[in-house]
Hints:
single chain; globular; alpha+beta; 4 strands; about 60% helix; 4 helices; 4-stranded antiparallel sheet
Amino acid sequence: MILGLDVVLKQWIHQQLDYLQAIAVTPFFNLVHVHNTGAAFSFLADAGGWQRWLFVGVAAAVSVWLAWSLAKSPNRVERFALAVLLGGALGNLVDRLYRGYVVDYLDLYWQGWHWPAFNLADMAICTGVALLLWLTFRTSATFDAKGQ
């Protein structure tokens, strides 16, 4: 579901907004159309093009590992976190393969400060990672309380 919705939203943004166009939605939120050839926060965006294939390889490898972990996990919350994370990873992977860059379209800001633009896949990745961290710390706390 995350993958499908992400692909549809990115295609809609790509068709409806010109590159670098911004539409104010609220006093702190814009819809924008930007291209990210790098990773999170545009890391390596100006590296000359080789980074595309590095990020494709990393995303593909991580996606295989996530799918394997998803199939093995007995924990329902962990499976949900892995599925959300996998959907986000695949969403950005599809963009890199299809376009050569990731379409970002959500722009949050306050006064003159802008958070780097992001998309649904990025939100899914962050949500999945946060849930996995929560599960890890919750499990660690349970073991510590039992003295194990």
